[in-house]
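does this look right to u?? S-adenosylmethionine version
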Amino acid sequence: MHVRNPYRNPPDILLLADAYPALKACRRLTEALLKRDFNITVQIPDDRLCPPVPNRLNYILWLQDILSETLGDQIRGIDIGTGASAIYPLLACRLDSRWRFVATEIDEKSYTCALSNIGQNNLQGHIELVRATPDGPLFPFSLFPDATFDFTMCNPPFYTSKAEVEASADGKLREPKAVCTGAEVEMITPGGEAAFVKRMIDESLDSQERCRWYTSMLGKFSSLAGIVEYLNQREISNYGITEFVQGQTRRWAIIWSFTKTRLPDYLGRIRNPTIQHLMPPRNTLRQPFSTTNLSRLTAALENALANLDSVTFAPNTVQQTVAVSDDEELLLTDILISATRNSWSRAARRKAKNPNAASQSAMEIEASTVVMRCRLQIRRVVHSHDRADKQEGLVVDASWMEGQDRALFDSFVSHVMRKAEMASAE
Ligand SMILES: C[S@@+](CC[C@H](N)C(=O)[O-])C[C@H]1O[C@@H](n2cnc3c(N)ncnc32)[C@H](O)[C@@H]1O
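got this back:
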């Protein structure tokens, strides 16, 4: 090609679509990306929403990260309002053959089209489509009385009314007009997305641990505050928030659970300082250490853990570079820890000196139950924001993984960190 021809290097179609939104609305672009990159064949009718692949993929990848430690040969999820494309189940099942879906849809045309898309990709053994009704339950648990699920997901209809759709057509609220060629049933629901998600929260209070993680995407940042307040009112403290950023488009997702499993902060908190009031308390606590000697610090930590009789731990040596905003970190040691009771508080240590204080049987019962699981990661941080004066240091990140009692985790971390700092300081 001619040297001055700018198309000598073919344009990046996704960047182009970001700069020229009408392209995003192009069904052929979605169909082509799904075919080329995932071997998925879909047909999306012209009068139904066309899902942008990068955004939908972001949601699936986040769920994959959350479920990455799930054992077993199946991961079972529910997609509420799967749409004509059935994009979430198709993508997820193509990416990992262990995934299974129940997908719901109220709109007849989208239901029929989703059924055909699932069949065309030979995924009918992995994805079960359920015809829902607008006034019926959002979660189809009653149809699967013996099943438990790993997650629910949803991209809810987000507008409250036709007037709101029209008001947003200039692109202020969501995607530009060209993209919003969906049917009303896809885009409008009484009370908008916030009311839809609140319905899910209400239903989840009944179904509780039938599902490990309840999640939903949110198209409007303004929905977040009301939903967090609703979770707080209902005393659902185990929740998280993330954001999906693709070019100029930003979306959010909320996640909550009634189980003891806790999310690491990188999956359940957004770092943006202006919205910290909406974030759940931190599950990852960072402690800088004065020593720069890795073996000293590792030995000090292991010694502090070995001195706690209710604690078992498994250290793992790793060498993995991880990027954290502007800083680079080297993950060096990963220690998995379980505790069967509190043996680190002052009261617990006093009791241990006087074993008659606790009856034998109570001790045995306690010892058989894990009350807290967490991980300690030793990392080497390079503070690169001041490049002239690079500062290296060792830190330990303590991440709460399981338990009901946040105070127990906090007191464990402060005990172990204090002991390790005293023993490793040079
Ligand atoms: C914004 S679209 C999302 C479609 C698809 N999941 C996606 O991300 O492209 C919302 C979908 O939810 C469906 N829907 C609306 N109310 C529903 C309900 N009560 N139960 C199940 N689906 C519903 C709509 O018909 C529509 O297909």
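The longest strand covers residues 311-324. idk if thats expected tbh
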